Structures are given as C-alpha cells and as structure tokens.
Amino acid sequence: MPKTLVQEFTKGLWDEIPPFRLVLGLCPTLGVTTSMENGLGMGLATTFVLVFGNILISMLRNIIPSQVRIACFIIVIATFVTVVELVMQAYTYALFLKLGVFIPLIVVNCIILGRAEAFACKNTIIYSIADGLGMGIGFTLSLGALGAIREVLGSGSLTVWGDLSYSVASVFPSFQPFTFLVRAPGAFICLGLMLCVLNAIGKK
Amino acid sequence: MNEMVKMVVVLTVLSAASGGVLAGVKKGTASQIEAQQLTFVKGPAIKSILAGSANDPISDRFKIADGELERNFFVGKMNGKASNIAFESYGKGFGGDIGFMVGVNLASGKVIGAAVTTHSETPGMGARAKDDPAFAAQFKGVSIRDKEIKVSKDGGKITAISGATITSRGVCAAVTNAMATYQKLEPQIKEHIKQFDK
C-alpha cells in the first residue's frame, strides 16, 4: 500500500527517526551535541541540505544514468553543503566556528546519501520534499534533545539560542556538572541510553 | 556507446552548474563573511585599541592597496573627528606569523594602543604576548615615525616576555613593519580619512 504524503513526512519523526531508528549519521550526532544550540544548528544545516538535495535529485531522477548516480548525488549534495557553509559563515559566524569541520562533513552524512538513494531517486518531488523535511526535522530534534541532555547534565547550563541561556545552578545551587558527559565517551553513553528508552517505548 | 556519452554529458553539465552556483554564492557572501571575520577575529583587539571611539571602527574602515596586499584601516572617531586609525601588520614569531594591530593617533603620530590578533605561538610562553596586556602596552607612546623598535636584548627599549624572546622580536618586527607601512602610505591614509570627517 503506497503511503500518503503525511505518512512520508511523519515517518521521519518517529518510525524512522534517523539517529535512533535508522542509526545513520552518527558522526555529527556524537560529535557536535555538546550543547543544544550546536545540535539544533547542525540539524538545521543538515535539513536544508536534505530537502534541497532531495528536490534536485528527484527532479533529475529520469536524466541521471544509474551507473553514475552516486557521483551525481555527491555533486548535488556537496554543492548544497558548500552553500550552507558559506551562508553560515556569513550570518552565524559564532556557530560556524563551533561546528567547525562538521559542516563540510555533512557531505558524507549517511542520512543524506541514504535518502537520495533510497527515496528521492524513486519518488516524485512532492514526496521527496515531505521525506526530506520529515527526516531533517527528526534529525534536528534528536540532536537538540541529545545536546540538551548533555549540556544540562554535563556543563550545568542550557543555551537555547545565542545569548538566551539558563543555568542549572540557579535552580539547584548544589548541582555539580558531570563534565564527563560533554566529552566523547559521554556522547556514546547518552546515545545508548536514549536508544534504550526509545526502544522500550516503541515496543509497547 | 550511447550510454557512455550520456553519462559524460550528465556529469559534466551537473558539475558545471554546481560550479556556477557556488561561484555566485561565494561572490554574494564575500563581503558579509569578511565583515564577520573582522568582527570575531580582529574585533576585540580593535575595540580595545580604539576604546572610547564614538563610531564603530569595524564598519568605518577603508582599504589601501600596498603592493600586492590590500590593507584594512579602521577609523576611530574622537569628539566627532576621525583622529585615530588602527591597522594590522605582521612579524615572524616562533610558530609563524604574528598579527599585531597597532592604533595610531594621526595628529601626533604616536601609538595609542596595540594588541596581538592572530598567532600560533606556544601556549603559556609566546602566547602570553596576547594574554598579558602589559606586554603590548609597552608600545604605547612609541612614535610611528621612528625607523624601528627592538627588544632590550638587541639594544632597544621593549622588555621581552621571559622565555619568549623570539615571539617578542616577532612583535617588534611587526611594529617595525607597521612604521614602514604607515610612513609609506601616510598621504593616502590622510586622503581616505577625510571622508569620515563629517
């Protein structure tokens, strides 16, 4: 049974939420989620590339010869990633500095190539947009949630965006941050625990 | 055969289109990116040097071509008059070029402030040139019309950072360069600065 447009969109939010269900795109998931702002920024950049990459690949799906399709996908994706990089450098320079090398690495993010290969090159443009948007938002929310947990517990603060920031110490004065969580091993443990919780909920 | 031609054509057209788009975006964002880099990388140094200016020195800037280089000059206004100017020059340090921002009062030709902008010196040693403001403060009051400036070990009057003589020499070389640049470009600087005197 073919899925409806709404189903294509919502599957990225729960049934196939990228880092947890598909377990794709783990490199940025683990690398940049030291704070919520970083996670959201990375997620939005990825969403942009995902949506526009899907649109273009879906448009060109009948022209691209299947033998060189991966090369064509990479060209399209790399172009959009470079556009994102330049735009972030121009308008959100502080975030650009924090995300650093992870922005150019969006090119090799498995989610994007995965969606291009598995979805956009077989479906119409409207469906590809719904798919890209759903996956992108799911990815952004996952990164935001993971970043928020790590930031609150690991550095004792929560930065929503820019200067809008809250401190845990103002609510619980005796709180001591687990600095372990903002380091790399903390990312693995947090991700594992979140996977476990999501699977437990999903089973019911 | 036909299939192969199609592959080559598709890939070529796609690559060319992508190149075109990127060139366009790069051109469109170039000036904004430059402004952001100036604000974040050089902004703090410029603000501290030209402290008390009535204007925003980062947006009030002009460029002068110096040989193959284009140098940025930042204008600081005091009492409604564009009286101070800051610009960057480079000297060779221990780990590479040290960028040193020098602020000059145009009327007296004296250095009013100085700070390290970019460097790759050893943390805790040469990097103190940036972290310890007392070092850069020694350049205050030096005349930009002098020939050169040296550390005390070489017969000059700047006290080197202990354990970081090469860094200190690099900063002195940067200031010496700044002197040469200023003396060479002074007529043009004074010409350009008139447009900010309003």
Beta-strand share of residues of chain A: under 5%
- Taking pLDDT < 50 over at least 5 consecutive residues as the criterion, the unreliable ranges of chain B are none
Given the helix and strand composition of chain B, which structural class is it? Answer: alpha+beta
Rounded to the nearest angstrom, the radius of gyration of chain B is 22 Å
Please identify the oligomeric state: heterodimer
Order of helices and strands of chain A: HHHHHHHHEEH
Largest sheet composition of chain A: 2 strands, antiparallel
What is the number of E strands of chain A?
2
Q: How many strands of chain B?
A: 5
What proportion strand of chain B? 15-25%
Rg of chain A, Cα atoms, Å: 18 Å
Shape of chain B: globular
Write the layout of secondary structure elements.
The complex is a heterodimer of chains A (204) and B (198).
Chain A: H1 5-10, H2 18-22, H3 26-31, H4 36-59, H5 69-91, H6 93-99, H7 110-120, H8 125-155, E1 157-161, E2 164-167, H9 184-203
Antiparallel strand pairs in A: 1-2
Helix pairs in contact in A: 4-5, 4-7, 4-8, 5-6, 5-7, 7-8
Chain B: H1 2-49, E1 61-66, E2 69-78, E3 81-92, E4 97-105, E5 111-116, H2 128-131, H3 133-137, H4 165-193
Antiparallel strand pairs in B: 1-2, 2-3, 3-4, 4-5
Descriptive account of the structure:
- The complex is a heterodimer of chains A (204) and B (198).
- Chain A has 204 residues and is mainly alpha-helical.
- Chain A is 65% helix and 4% strand.
- Chain A has one domain.
- Chain A has helices at 5-10, 18-22, 26-31, 36-59, 69-91, 93-99, 110-120, 125-155, 184-203, and strands at residues 157-161, 164-167.
- In chain A, α4 packs parallel to α7 and α4 (36-59) packs antiparallel against α8 (125-155).
- Chain A starts with a helix and ends with a helix.
- Chain B has one domain (46-196).
- Chain B contains four helices and five strands.
- Chain B has a five-stranded antiparallel sheet with strand order 1-2-3-4-5.
- Chain B is globular.
